[in-house]
Design goal:
With about 500 residues, this protein is of the alpha+beta class. The protein contains 17 helices and 22 strands.
């Protein structure tokens, strides 16, 4: 449903954390009224207080709250919402949610239920793109699979190695690389279980594995007046366990000729399927710049800030315009590239073991300055829940060229401090020093083949900590013999002197 209006609308943000904060800001800047939802585990999250009103949609587990359509719709009714923005993840690519919102007479700020069904379903998307033509596909299954034995037969037809992927979602969940036949059944069952928990839909599909590809995506957006535009591409090849770590706009690998060919193909596909609102068409590309359609994300992407840096276009504001029946605020000819941008996903995790961290953030310092942007919902005293994705912030930078963006990224990361928890900031800093990354010609195998994280504690820090520990130990032993009520104790005097020093 699209409605042309200049009247302020009450818009429910059906999400949490940093993306909820970011969408709320765009809603407010557009003259509309933002509304928040939250789970019991998110009562103290910053996004709750940023809305004009907030509604609790359930307990901590996402299946009981942010994935609960009935609870979200109750919130929309209670808060008298006119529209719903789903953010990314959770219900953003659920056809049934988009349809439920429309059936309730509300505006869904995203594509139509039909578009989500066609392109959000990875198998249907492949069928659609095959019919359109012009976009080569990686060989794979034509239908969603849930039975491991049936899937195994299909897998042997495709050949190994191959990828198992969740039909209903992304973000690396429900995805497994299978190198040999004897690994398949176990990995299929694990992928099915993970996809079921993450998306409420365990269906999987199989795809031939393209060794060491570039992962490149094109940002598209379309309105109801026939305008379809691309906002250039993003390089998303820095990945760990199929989850993006660093993104760049634009890709340092592509030639201009391939860039134009790729973007034009994405626009053609978007137009052919009658797509409305923002979306991303994702490709795998080999070292000869041959590209293959992989999937379409029918939502806002985590990494959209790098595109906003380079084009100067606020993608969320354009989503609102399109949803309310207005034209895009720009034409394709007006979309120009300016400089280079890099985004770093800051996760609460052990960067060596790649394990999520939960706990209280006891101190926060984020970077600031020219060409630096921070998207986050954390603050000093914030308790990171165990129920959700480990990403707690995004630090993105812009430079006049890629080298300046990299140097600015280093400075920004060195100015980023989150005490009380481990983060992957050290991982990002090490990647920025990696020769393969610096060359711009890296693939999805960068982490693991061309780079491995090294736990690195500077030697001077080790020596300093050892000296402090020795001093404390010696002081504690000697202090036991001193009288605690003796204000003139030599030990107390020494302690004061040491404290002043």
């Amino acid at each position: 449903m699209t409605i042309k209006t200049s009247k302020p609308r009450r818009i429910l943000v059906a999400n949490r954390g940093e993306i909820a904060c970011r969408v709320i800001r765009a809603i407010r800047e557009s003259g509309h009224i933002p509304l928040s939802i939250y789970s019991t585990a998110d009562r103290t999250s910053a996004h709750v207080s940023k809305g004009d009103a907030a509604y609790c949609v359930g307990e901590g587990p996402s299946i009981q709250s942010y994935l609960n359509i009935e609870s979200v719709m109750k919130a929309a009714k209670a808060l008298k919402a006119d529209a719903i923005h789903p953010g990314y993840g959770f219900l953003s690519e659920k056809e049934v949610f988009s349809q439920t919102v429309s059936d309730a007479g509300l505006i869904f700020i995203g594509p139509s239920p039909k578009a989500i069904k066609t392109m959000g379903d990875k198998v249907e998307a492949r069928k659609t793109m095959a019919n359109i033509g012009g976009l080569p596909l990686v060989p794979g299954t034509k239908d969603g699979l849930t039975d491991a034995n049936e899937a195994f037969i299909k897998a042997k037809e495709i050949g190994f190695p191959l990828m198992i992927k969740a039909l209903a979602g992304g973000g690396g969940r429900g995805m497994r690389l299978v190198m040999k036949e004897d690994e398949f059944l176990n990995l299929f069952q694990r992928a099915y279980s993970e996809a079921s928990k993450a998306f409420g839909d365990g269906r999987l599909y199989l795809e031939r594995y393209v060794s060491s590809p570039h992962h490149i995506e094109v940002q598209v957006i379309a309105d109801s007046h026939g305008n379809v535009c691309h906002l250039f591409e993003r390089e998303c090849s820095v990945q760990r366990r199929h989850q993006k770590v660093i993104e760049e706009c634009t890709s340092p690998f592509l030639s201009e000729a391939t860039r134009m060919k790729l973007c034009e193909a994405a626009v053609k596909a978007t137009r052919e399927i009658g797509y409305l609102n923002a979306g991303t068409i994702e490709f795998l590309m080999d070292d000869k710049e041959n590209f293959y359609f992989m999937e379409m994300n029918t939502r806002l992407q985590v990494e959209h800030p790098v595109t906003e840096w380079v084009t100067g276009i606020d993608i969320v504001k354009e989503q609102l315009r399109v949803a309310f029946g207005e034209k895009l605020s720009f034409s394709q000819e007006q979309v120009q590239r300016r400089g280079h941008s890099i985004e770093f996903r800051i996760n609460a995790e052990d960067p060596e073991k790649f394990l999520p961290q939960a706990g209280r953030v006891t101190g926060v310092q984020f970077p600031a300055g020219i060409g630096v942007r921070v998207d986050s919902h954390v603050y000093r005293g914030y308790d990171i829940p165990v129920f959700y994705d480990s990403m707690i912030a995004k630090v993105s930078v812009w430079g006049r060229d890629r080298n300046e963006a990299i140097q600015r990224g280093k400075a920004a990361l060195n100015d980023t401090t989150l005490n009380g928890i481990k983060t992957n900031v050290p991982l990002h800093l090490q990647i920025l020093d990696n020769p393969k990354f610096l060359s711009g010609n890296y693939t999805t195998r960068l982490i693991g083949e061309d780079f491995n994280y090294q736990e690195n504690i500077p030697k001077d820090s080790e020596l300093r900590m050892a000296l402090i520990a020795a001093a404390v130990s010696a002081y504690s032993k000697e202090y036991k013999g001193a009288k605690e009520n003796d204000e003139n104790s030599r030990w107390k005097s020494l302690a004061r002197e040491e404290g002043m020093r």
